[in-house]
Specification:
The protein is 46% helix and 13% strand. By secondary structure, it is of the alpha/beta class. Among the domains are: 181 residues, 3-Layer(aba) Sandwich (Rossmann fold); 68 residues, Winged helix-like DNA-binding domain superfamily/Winged helix DNA-binding domain (Arc Repressor Mutant, subunit A), CATH 1.10.10. The two termini are 35 Å apart.
Length: 380
């Protein structure tokens, strides 16, 4: 698929100047400098990414880069012109998000080593924070198709965004069902946005963008092809963008199971639709259930587990009610381990009624969630 010349969905970074953004994109093209090494450079050069780009061997070593990485970087740097990288993206109307941007997906930013740069083509909006990944085998059965269409249609009715990987099989069915139901869907690619893989899904990719119902997202710069090693990394973004992962049909060795494993490491919920014990395409998903994934018989099971029954209200409350002093105090006390309301009252020094009412509003805003027994954790 050739990216359209329509500028309707192009936006620059909201936190960096164009000059700064050009260097972020240039670094993103350098093989061997991923999120961890890039963070080392930012810290050493005090966020002066231009200084990091033009640094010599001695400074790069002081920043923490290994000799082989420095040698590789210097060779690649000679062939990369930051301004031209930005111009290419501008011509294709591809949006760029970085760690610095307020619009960078909050859920993804929480995971280990999130991508420093995201390339986005299409409409990626605030409501997409309420997302569920739907993944499964490339060789789906009739049962898999029926279940995926049913589940996704009901998720769309609940205003949940569907995230998947544009692969054949369950991914394709999930994206298509979301569009057909008038919902939103995000396709995460394992290559640059100037290539669509598999090629047979070019029409689907175009539909996602041109409908205004979703976006194509990748961490890979233009020109990067869908090499096998890119797909596991892509899967961590699928789960990272989502509140949970729903697996529908997966054999014992499957990319969908890799996504589920990433979800578990990222603290996300993993849901699985039971399959026939006689089908090889269901062995992986049935094993997930044996290992503790939530079995799903109805979308209500997912909405209840993720507290997604009131998405419009969550969005409205987030927009209408800014943080206040009480919220800030409680946020400092609440983490990913459950905290009882009595502990929060005692440690915050706030009145019981103030803590109770503030927690209720924070829950509506999607900031915290109750996990039973008047215990609270961060929602994201």
């Amino acid at each position: 698929m050739e990216v359209s010349d329509s500028p309707s969905h192009y936006y620059p970074s909201d936190a960096l100047s164009l000059d700064e953004l050009a260097y972020w994109i240039a670094f993103n093209r350098v093989l061997g400098i991923g999120p961890v090494r890039f963070k080392l450079l930012l810290d050493f050069f005090h966020d002066d990414v231009a200084a990091a780009w033009h640094a010599g061997s001695k400074e790069l070593a002081q920043a923490g880069l290994e000799p082989k990485i420095i040698e590789r970087f210097l060779k690649q740097r000679a062939a990369i012109i930051p301004e031209r990288e930005l111009e290419r993206l501008d011509k294709l109307h591809i949006r760029v998000m970085t760690w610095k941007d307020k619009t960078y997906p909050a859920l993804l930013k929480e995971v280990e080593a999130p991508p420093p740069v995201l390339y986005i083509y299409g409409a990626f909006i605030e409501a997409d924070q309420f997302a569920l990944a739907v993944v499964g085998t490339r060789n789906s059965t009739t049962y898999g198709r029926q279940v995926t269409e049913h589940m996704v249609t009901d998720l769309v009715k609940g205003q949940v965004t569907v995230v998947s990987g544009l692969a054949l099989g369950i991914d394709t069915i999930a994206h298509t069902a979301a569009l057909d139901a008038g919902g939103r869907t995000i396709a995460v690619l394992a290559n640059g946005l100037d290539t669509i893989y598999p090629p047979i899904n070019r029409g689907l990719a175009r539909r996602i963008v041109e409908s205004g119902q979703g976006a194509l997202i990748t961490e890979y710069p233009l020109g990067v092809q869908p090499e096998s090693g890119n797909f596991p990394a892509r899967n961590r973004i699928i789960s990272g963008l989502s509140l949970g992962v729903l697996v529908i049909e997966a054999p014992e060795k499957s990319g969908a199971l890799i996504t589920a494993n990433f979800a578990l490491k990222q603290g996300r919920e993993v849901f699985a639709v039971p399959g026939s014990i006689l089908s090889s395409r269901s062995k992986g998903v049935n094993r997930l259930i044996q290992d503790g994934a939530r079995p799903v018989m109805d979308v209500k099971d997912i909405l209840e587990a993720l507290n997604l029954f009131m998405i419009p209200q969550h969005i409205e409350m987030q927009a209408a009610l800014p943080e206040n002093a009480e919220e800030r105090v409680l946020l400092d006390l609440i983490g990913h381990e459950p905290r009882h309301v009595d502990d929060l009252i005692r440690e915050s020094g706030l009145a019981t009624t103030v803590v109770a009412s503030t927690l209720m509003m924070m829950e509506l805003k999607g900031m915290v969630k109750q996990v039973g027994g008047m215990q609270f954790v961060l929602a994201r």
